[in-house]
Each structure stands twice: as C-alpha cells, then as structure tokens.
Amino acid sequence: MNTERDSETTFEEDSQPNDEVVPYSDDETEDELEDQEPAVEPEQNRVNREVEENRDTIKKDCTWHIKANDRKFHEQSHFMNTKFFCIKKSKYANNAIKTYKYNVFTFLPLNLFEQFKRAANIYFVGLLILQAIPQISTLAWYTTLVPLLLVLGITAIKDLVDDVARHKMDKEVNNRTCEVIKNGRFKSTKWKNIQVGDVIRLKKNDFVPADILLLSSSEPNSLCYVETAELDGETNLKFKMALEITDQYLQREDTLAIFDGFIECEEPNNRLDKFTGTLFWRKRSFPLDADKILLRGCVIRNTDICHGLVIFAGTLKYLTWLPIFAPYSITFCLHSVEIIRLGQSHFINWDLQMYYSEKDTPAKARTTTLNEQLGQIHYIFSDKTGTLTQNIMTFKKCCINGQIYGDHRDASQHSHSKIEVVDFSWNTFADGKLQFYDHYLIEQILSGKEPEIRQFFFLLAVCHTVMVDRTDGQINYQAASPDEGALVNAARNFGFAFLARTQNTITISELGTERTYDVLAILDFNSDRKRMSIIVRTPEGNIRLYCKGADTVIYERLHQMNPIKQETQDALDIFASETLRTLCLCYKEIEEKEFAEWNKKFMAASVASTNRDEALDKVYEEIEKDLILLGATAIEDKLQDGVPETISKLAKADIKIWVLTGDKKGTLLCRETSVNSLLHTRMENQRNRGGVYAKFAPVVHEPFFPPGENRALIITGSWLNEILLEKKAKKSNILKLKFPRTEEERRMRTQSKRRLEAKKEQQQKNFVDLACECSAVICCRVTPKQKAMVVDLVKRYKKAITLAIGDGANDVNMIKTAHIGVGISGQEGMQAVMSSDYSFAQFRYLQRLLLVHGRWSYIRMCKFLRYFFYKNFAFTLVHFWYSFFNGYSAQTAYEDWFITLYNVVYSSLPVLLMGLLDQDVSDKLSLRFPRLYVVGQRDLLFNYKRFFVSLLHGILTSMVLFFIPFGAYLQTVGQDGEAPSDYQSFAVTVASALVITVNFQIGLDTSYWTFVNAFSIFGSIALYFGIMFDFHSAGIHVLFPSAFQFTGTASNALRQPYIWLTIILTVAVCLLPVVAIRFLSMTIWPSESDKIQKQRKRLTAEQQWQRRPTAFRRGASSRRSAYAFSHQRGYRAPLDAIIADEGIYR
C-alpha cells in the first residue's frame, strides 16, 4: 500500500503551484523530469579541467576535428568511412553539392522506378496485362494504355524540367569562386574545391560558400553583418563577432597562412541556432558558439572583408538539413483533386486582400492538401505577442525605488489631463521618437537627487546584447528582440546612450559623459532562465552585476533586505492592469575575490565539451543571488488592426479561439482552484459510477456549468501540469529498486502504473470537456511544449479540426501539432512561417483565409466528389444492366474509345472548373454572414448520407440511360425501313445521352456561372460529337481497321429523328426530377446559403450604398487594452472584449 501511495500524486497532498512560474524546460523529456538527479558541482569542475588539460582525447559530443590549413590531416585513416565494399572515403566531404536526381543514362529507368512505386500505376499495369489477354478480357488494351501513358509522360516531362533546372543551379553554385589560402597566398578557387580546414576570404555581398568560423573582419572588433534570407527567410541583418584572440592576431594574409588552430566541435546537425565547440590555439582553449559561425547561404553585408575557417562543407553543411520549400510538386495528370487543390492554393497566393503592402508580404499557401480543411475548423490556438499584437514595443512607464513614473504630470509632480510631450532636446543622443509625458522623471534624472534613477537607466544601457551601427553620424541599434530594442532606446532618450562595444568593453554616454566599462562576463538570456546578466568593472575598479528579467525569476533571487519589494510588486500589478509588458531590474556589488573564484568555474564551464549549457546555467546560479532590486519597466505592445473584428466574426462562425501565451495572466474569471475542484468532483463521481476503469459503463455526458452562461477559463502553465497530472511525481523515501524482486511486486507495479495512466487520461479528457464548455480559454505562462500538448489534447478527445497560428520559434511545436499551421511573418523571424502550412503578415487575414477561401474550398471539393461519384456510377452501372441482356458475356455497352476518353475528355473540364471557380455567395457576403461557415464544421456537404444519395442518383440515372433507349430500340423500324436496333447504334445513343446528361447535371450543380463554365459544358458536348464522327469515319477505319470498328455508325444513327427524340427523352427523364426536387427543397427547406442567394442583389446593393456600423471602434482605449491580456491578476477587460460580444451569437 505504501508503494502505491508514494507513486501517486494527488491534489490535496501537493503544494500549490506557483501561478507565474514556467514548470520545466521544453528541452527535458518526461523521463528526464522523473529521473533527474542533482549533479555534484565539484566533480563537474574536475571533469572540465581534465578536458582542458587533455584535449587529444576523443569526446562523446565533440567528435568533429578540424585542423586549419592542413588538408592532409583530414585524410588520415581514422577519418575514413567504408562506402562500398573496400572503397573508403573521408567523412570530410568536399564542398560540391548535388541536388539533381538523374543524368542522361539514369533518367528513364529511375523515373519509371519512382513512378511505379505508386500503387495506382502498378494497378494500371496489372490491369493492362490482363486486358492484353483476349481470353479473359473483352476490353481493348489501349483503353488503359492511353491514360497510363498520358499520366507517365506528363509526370516524366515535369520531372525532367525540374531536374534540368537543378543541374543548372548546381553547376552555377559549384562554379562560384572565392579566395582560399594555398601555398601561403589567397588564390581564387571554385566552391566545389573548398575543403574542411581551408581559410577563406569573403568580401561585401559575397555568399558564404560553407559553414565557417569567423576569424576576423575589417570592421572594428571583427564584427560581421550577414543576411540569412536563404536560410530562414529573414531579411533583417544579423551580426557575428569573432573571438578576441583571432581578431587580434589574424588580420593579415601572412598570419592567416600560418594559422594552425585545432577545433573540436559537434557533428553536423539541424540546430541552426546552437553550436558547441572549442578552439585550441597558442596553448589556450576558447569556447565557440553559434554567434561566431557563418552558415552557408548567408550573404555578407556592410562588411568589406572577413576571414573564416571552413567547419562543414558540401553535404555536411547545416544548410542541407533545412526544410527546403520548393515549388509545389504535383503530377500534372488527370488527377482532378490535385489540380483543384493546386488552383485553390494559387488563389490564396494571388489574393490581394491578403497582401500586406507595408512589408510587401503576400499570403502564401505552402501546401496543396489542406485547403478544404480550412473550411472545417472548430478550434483556433493562437499565440498573443506578435500574433494578436504588433510586437512593436514602446517604453511607457517605469517604477524606480518604489515610485511610478510615466503619468501625465509636470516637473512639480502635479498631474494634468493634458500636458505637452517631454522635450528631450537637452540630450544630443535622443532620437526624437519617444512620446513621454512625465516631466517629473526628467527633473529627477537631471537633478541627481535619487542615484537609483540614474542607476536604473544605466542598467538599461549596459545590460543587453544590442549592437550599434553609425550611419551618417546617426546611431542605429540592431536588437535581437523588440523588447530589448525599446529599453535601450529608452535609456538613450533619458540620457544614458549606448555608444559602442568590443569583445571586452562597452561604452556608455552618461548625461553627456562617455565612460568605458570592462565587460567581464555576459550571462545569456534563454527561455528557461528568463533573465540576462552582465558583469562589468567600472573605471574606478568596482565589479558589479546588472540583471534584468521576469519578475518571477528575479524575486526568487533577491536579497532578503529589499525595502521596495512590495511597492514594486504593487506597481507590477498596476502595469499589468494597463496591459503593459514588464521586466524587473536589479544589481549586485561583487568582491574581487568572489569574482576570481567564480570566474574560474565560468571559464571551465565555457569550454566544457559535454553538457556545456547545463554547466553554464549552474555557474550562473551561483553568482545571480542576493540581488538588490532597482525597479521595473513597462512597455506597450499595441494590438494589430482588425483583430477585434476578426475574433468577432470567427466567434459568429462557431469557431472557438484559445490563446496560448508565455506571458503573465491578465485576469481570472474562472480560477484554477475552482477548476481543480470541478475536476476532482467529476473524478469522484466517475469512480462512484464504476470507476475510471469501468469500460462497459454507460457514458454519461453531464455539463460542468449550467447552460446559458458565458465563461472563460484562464490557466497558467504550472496549474496546467497540476490538473493534467503532468508534474513530476514525488520521490519516495524508500529506496527504489531498479528491478522488482518478486513477481508479485512486478505485477503490483504494473497495475499501479496502469491505474495512474488511466487516471491521467480521464483527468485530461475531463479538462478538455470543461475547457470546451467555456466561451474562451487562455493559457498563460505556458512553454512551447505545453502549447503543443494542449493542441494535442483537443485533437485527441474532441476529434475536431484544429488550427494553430503564431509568429515565433516558440510557436513551432504548436503549429506542427495542429491539423493546420499558420505562420505570421512578423518581428520574430521566419521560423513559424517556415514550419507552417499557410502564412501571411496580419492576424486579420485569418478571417478571409477561413470564411472565404476555406469555405469555398470545402464546398467546391464536396461538389466535385459528389459529382465524380455520380457520373461514374451513371457510366459504369449501364454495363450492369446490359449484362442481363447480353447473356453475361462481358460485352461492353459502349465503344472502346468512348470508355477510354469518357473521364479524360468528355466529362473532365466542367467539373474541374466548378472545383476551381464555383462559389455559392460572394466573398463579401461570406464575410458578412459568418454562420455560413457552419456547414463545413458539421461536414454537411459530404458524408455517408451524401455519398449514398450520389450513389442512388447514379443508379437511377444509369437505369434511365439504359432502359429508355433499350425500350425505344425494341422492335423498332427506322425511316428507311431498316431496324435501327443494332448494337452499335444502341451504344451511340446511350453514350450521347450520358455525355449530355452529366454535362447538364454539372450545370445544375454550378452556383457561379461564367463564360468559362458555359463554354466548358457545351464545348465538352461538341467535342464528344466531333471526336465520335472522326472515329466513326471510313478513313480512320482504313488506317486502323482493328481499333476503329464503328464505321459509319454515328452518321447513320444520328440522322434519324427517332434516335434524337430518344436521346432528348432520356436526358429529360434524368434531369427534370432533379430540377423539381431542388426547387421544392429551396422553397420549403432553404439553407442559409439559399436564403442569401435569393437576396443576393439586395444585399449587394446594401453593401455598396450603406456603411454598416461596427461593434468595435478601432483605437478606443477600452477595446485596445482589452487584447493585450498579458500580465497580472485582477484585470477583467481582456476576456470581456473577446467573449462578451461573441456570446450573443451563440
């Protein structure tokens, strides 16, 4: 009993989770969370020292060895891999790339091999073989061969064109040139001849030919600016900086020629933002990271010359691991579904109403297979920052030494409703863009009465990773994030301007006085630490640590004696209520001896070959404690245009929106404790009804809330883990054995594990049921892994189509987990876009993507499928009825060439055009009436019922097509006294009636008529008669007597009015009941679409001449603040804005 009790986690016995703390790192697996053991720091340090002392040992993580300017080193036997039998090749490949698949000799066999890996092609080949045997087939072999050759030929031509383009591209890339050191001098060398270990020189606007370690550049401190558009689609410049040692000694050609550095690093992999390695040179070791690596495909910008050492080349470069989004690879065959999907994707790409002109960003469909699912979305999971907001940060307020600054007040601290903007003309470095209204803060800065205020802005100017660029005497900042850029710009305007930095110094203008500080260490920011620190030595010799980060992590590391903790916390609550984003600032004085001891550990961790990040995090923790709080910043992130209107329309379309964000929670309408209680009560009720494990107990659907009320669920990441039983289990005090000692113990452990899994599954299902009863759900302080988990839970338990939308790298997991991923190309790079199925620049375009393109795509595909089944049932089942009268001889009811061309020519174009162009209502009406979207969510247009209706329609049509001509031909005499009831005339009559019927039927199914549709319908009928008369002519029979045996049939049969009357009667009997049924249906049981179509002209006129009032006023403060729900408890506006106006439509 004790073992079982220890292994379970209950709500009552666990401590309550911290609302604001992210529970664990996304890099940890669940097994790692359970099995982590505390590491012994002295042992880690000892290992690190041994690694540094003996660098020749082969490491587990760093098995890639590079020797500069030494090609023979990489040809040693232990670097050789066996490729084929005894043939060996160095693992260090040359730099030539090969993306093409075929050459002159391999194209035909390899292409056919690729195509015949498709099951459909193999099926047709088998069918062709059977048809070639006369004893078992009555159909001619060419009825299958012609379509098959057409499919194979078009696909082969497409593949050939693509591969020729790849050949040209490979040739062009491989023959590019750059300068490589050979025999002590830089010489022009083709890219394909570059090898690992070469030292190369690149110039401005050159492409980087391989992954290289930046050694030096012509810029101060060996800075190098690169554009990474070829890698991640981002056009903004990124900076790289070489090591100080290489910047100092490797600037000239002669020193680069004798450079003999040795590098140990990780093997090539797909992590573009991480790199771990160590440079051994001049009897010292230097840590290498991604900030010193230039990846192949980057372009050198704003840098005249740079030098680098090739780390990875050719097929081993990072670039080859990137997902390459080539043009859509679609087989241009008669596979109508793919053609329709391709066309619908292009319509999305061409939609000018989804084009964002400010950044020249069009909408992009990155897939062709999901268009119809856009019309069936039930749940949308959205990020907040950068997705719903602009991600353009503006410094608004701050709290310093417990005092809030940023309100409208004059220098005497008197508040005013109207006051002029602060004049920063006294500051030569002010950019003139900051709108600030608190004159009292400027008075305090200039007077120097409170040193904490100057210390506050100095921290903002020094604690960052921003790079400065001077253009025409103007200072421009290159920031890694909008938040950091806003804070550094704020410090600049308030008199503390960041001017320059080197590898070891940073220069600040403090109220006009330039001072340079030695940078002793930078403690990097990451998503787990949620803070950044810098250790500097002042000109006076003092050592200080400055830190900024999230309030949750900062407050945990503050000194016990911090008198302004509560005042700052109150200010954070106020900032949160105003929907401002906050950071806390703090500092610490460090003694020389303390820093010297810590620095030894820091240097050892910096060059650790294994678990470097973990080692550094532990060292950081040692120094980031006992901090002194200075205050907090508050910056504003405005809502994007059109977000309220978009959310309102999506809500009217019965689409539920869940917001999953890493920010702090802004309100709590449905508290986590009440959720906890509701779920606990539900679990008890389920146990009382037979337990979680009662598989055969009747399912009881009981709501969590009474009907008729709108509720919102706001939950944090730590509570999410608690509720879903995802948190780490408590460690048992009893020593746990690795293997059970007895069979009984093994059985008990297995049963306990099963009970826990069943409990966890039921708890997760209950949570999803509860959340789905709420009008809106907001998950705050969630990690990327938790975002994906929430999406997966809804997919698993609701069986609904989901869509995830985000703009940053932290949204990639969520985007990939959902059925459909949408990327916003905003301020946080292109990672989300590159991982998405669809992308555009603004959240407001989502309504058009779903309500217009998604809905149209769903309707078109459903119409196509229903018609496709109908026309083929009508065509095929005629053979079935004919078999009763031909002695089951397997004789076909049609001519062989008609069978060959029916789906290829006679009935293909109209349905393709309907699948591409049809629309029941216009795009404007689709947006005006979002409830039209519901038909896709409920899958009303294509389901089992609709399928069987199409089947029945096809059966009845086939019966009419066969039995009316059969009865008309029975015992009949023509005008010339001859009987027209021969087999060939009968086949022509049935085929003619079939072609006319199915083409007129597509006309009845078409809602949006254009000249193209009409031409395709009547053109297909005309084409049928033209081809038939040609195939029945005497001339073609003379040339191919065995293939064309219906000589003169068409001209003889169709000249008789009796046969035309038979065809007309057959078509009328097939179509008139359809017309009657549809008329009655639209009159008695009209759908929403039918009602709007009846009033289309009036509604269109209203839209043109009347301006409809909107429920939202863009720019109104009550609504604007409503959507930046990012921060602290007690703020009620956000969910009201999302839900209140939605509830009336439910």
CATH class bucket of the domain at 389-412 and 426-639: Alpha Beta
| CATH architectural type of the domain at 389-412 and 426-639 | 3-Layer(aba) Sandwich
Model regions low in confidence, pLDDT < 50 over at least 5 residues? 1-16, 19-60, 316-329, 666-673, 692-696, 728-737, 1108-1146
Main β sheet profile: 9 strands, antiparallel
Per the CATH scheme, the topology name of the domain at 389-412 and 426-639 is: Calcium-transporting ATPase, cytoplasmic domain N
Class of secondary structure makeup: alpha+beta
Rg is 36 Å
Strand content: 15-25%
State the helix count.
39
Subcellular location: Apical cell membrane; Cell membrane; Cell projection, Stereocilium; Endoplasmic reticulum
Cofactor: Mg(2+)
InterPro entries: ATPase_P-typ_cyto_dom_N (IPR023299), ATPase_P-typ_P_site (IPR018303), ATPase_P-typ_TM_dom_sf (IPR023298), ATPase_P-typ_transduc_dom_A_sf (IPR008250), ATPase_P-type_domA (IPR059000), HAD-like_sf (IPR036412), HAD_sf (IPR023214), P-type_ATPase_IV (IPR006539)
Region (Disordered): 1-53, 1096-1116
Task: Jot down its keywords.
alpha+beta, Calcium-transporting ATPase, cytoplasmic transduction domain A, Calcium-transporting ATPase, cytoplasmic domain N, nine-stranded antiparallel β-sheet, 34 strands, disordered N terminus, disordered C terminus
Structure notes:
This protein is globular. 43% of the residues lie in helices and 17% in strands. It has 39 helices and 34 strands. Helix 18 runs parallel beside helix 25 (845-883) and helix 31 runs parallel beside helix 35. Among the domains are: 96-173, no CATH class; 195-312, Calcium-transporting ATPase, cytoplasmic transduction domain A; 389-412 and 426-639, Calcium-transporting ATPase, cytoplasmic domain N. The chain is of the alpha+beta class and 1146 residues long. A nine-stranded antiparallel sheet has the order 19-18-28-27-26-25-24-23-22, sandwiched between helices. Residues 1-53, 1096-1116 are annotated as: Disordered. It is a multi-pass membrane protein. The active site is at 383 (4-aspartylphosphate intermediate).
